[in-house]
Amino acid sequence: MLIKIPKFIKKPLVKIYHFYLNISWRIRQKNHNVTPINRLYFPFANRKVHYELKTRKIKYSSLIEIYKINNLYKPKNNYVFYSPYFRSFISENWIWDFQTNIRKKRKNIDFDKKNTIEINFKKPVFFISSTNVYSYFIFWNIFNILFFIRNNISFDIVVHENLKKEISFNKNFVKFLKKYLNLRIIYLNPNRNILIKSEVLLLNNYLKFAPYKSNKIKSHYMVFPKEIIKDLPSIIIKNRKLKKFFGKPRNDVVLISREDSRIIKNEKELLEKIPIIKRIVPEKLTIEEEISFAYHAKVIIAPFGAAISNIFFARPDCALIRLKFKKINQSDTKVDLFSDYTKFEMMAENKGMKYFLQDHGNFHGISTQKNSYFYVDIKKIKNLLKKII
Predict the structure, then answer these.
(1) Whole-prediction pTM value?
(2) For labelling, which of 95, 304, 309, 358 has a CA lying 20 to 30 Å from the CA of 137?
(3) How far apart are CA 293 and CA 313, in angstroms?
(4) Which letter does DSSP use for residue 165 in this model?
(5) 81 falls within a domain
């Protein structure tokens, strides 16, 4: 339970604390080093969450920190924030490798006061972070947005990027948020630096790293709070407008197919021998259709890939069958494709879904490159479907 400190005591304490931090960080760090947000600011609110994975023997709780911070500088073409007061870039710990990326780019980023426009927003704002990986958009943006909604925080969304230059799902997701969640979207010139005088919403600590193999302590992997995976999807799947789009729930058996890399060589034969399987190609679907295939699925079959993150929108009685292979090309760096447990199994476990890992022989080529392929054991899939359905 948090103890409320009276304002007349809290204000001078905050000033003293900030003064100390300001001096210490100036001494210890040069400009442009990235400082974790919780080192510099007090959170606006804390929400207790739990990290539980029975199969991995993970069970502990933590606090998600929500910040409302004013007077932040955001340079053009970069998802970073700079605090002129502390003379430091600040990071949200939920974006992994964030500090490394900024350090690499810091020579090209500076606090350019002359070529900056000052902006005051009417509400606190959340900045969209575009990405070239579909699942990351969900992890970095959708999770946060739904978390704010669940906690009754009023906010608008700001786009300070040229989404036309990004993979289309970035732009389509933003339109989706406006259409179905009635969120106000503010588009800013991506070629201008901005100084936000009003409040910016930032999140911290919702993503943890924990060992996903109990016998290997160094095998750390991202773990999401149980509440994010279990509670937040209802905001989407119970949305009235989307319910009209979905129609009545079905019990589809869905195969997530790929046409560029990780191709199922005997896919045509698979569909002929198991006609109940519906083939979908995520890249050809709208955001509504992507969410819809997961919502209607009784079983989702797929190799490791970003589209599996749609199980976030699936019903708890859905089952995931992930196809796994033997790596014969040791230069293939896509470890997840060949792993026994990934973030998708973690999501399924937290949702209460059944999930199955099936070995399907050798993988040919480099999994991230064009025309890499594998064969599936059709009999194996058929027998497992008989047990599930």
Answers:
(1) 0.88
(2) 358
(3) 9
(4) G
(5) yes
